[in-house]
Design a protein that fits this description.
Length: 200
Amino acid sequence: MNKAVVFDIGRVLFQWQLGALFEKLIDDTEELDWFLANVVTEEWHFEHDRGRALADMVPERIALFPQYEPHIRAYASRFNETVPGPVEGSHAIVERLADRGVALYCLTNFGDEFFAAFRPTQPIFDLFEDIVVSGVEKVAKPDPGIYAVMEERSGRSGAALFFTDDNPANIAAAKARGWDAHLFTDAKCLEVQLVEAGLL
């Protein structure tokens, strides 16, 4: 079976930063930094990636930080604004791989509710055969369980999976399963890696 390419989404296919939304809501830079370090943090957001429902997370957070209730509600209702746009060059690589008939997959830490709202806005996802979403599976990278889901859904394992992700821990977990895994830094480096793998 031909080798497939598995993409992470956040910071590989699309830019992602919580501050892109909250800089619209908080003018003071010191307050913004404090808010992102203490209120709507990436660590807290990761709970949704792992499968916790927003209906549980949001009221709980508002109880801790009632002065920021509108901001915490904005996190839930305006999440797409945390995605400023595509990562430069990545979508062109996806299109070239698709034109060559390479099987394409995504393996992403993404909340199920947020992905349901984001997916329809991005036609690039139509080029992928399947997308494994942590919030749906209720297991997130680098837990081995989500890699097993990708192996099952793609019908491939080990070196038959070329994987790119911006998180070193996620790459290490993929390599432990024998995947051909590469840390993403930018599209130019990814292109070189794909050429060396005989995929571009």
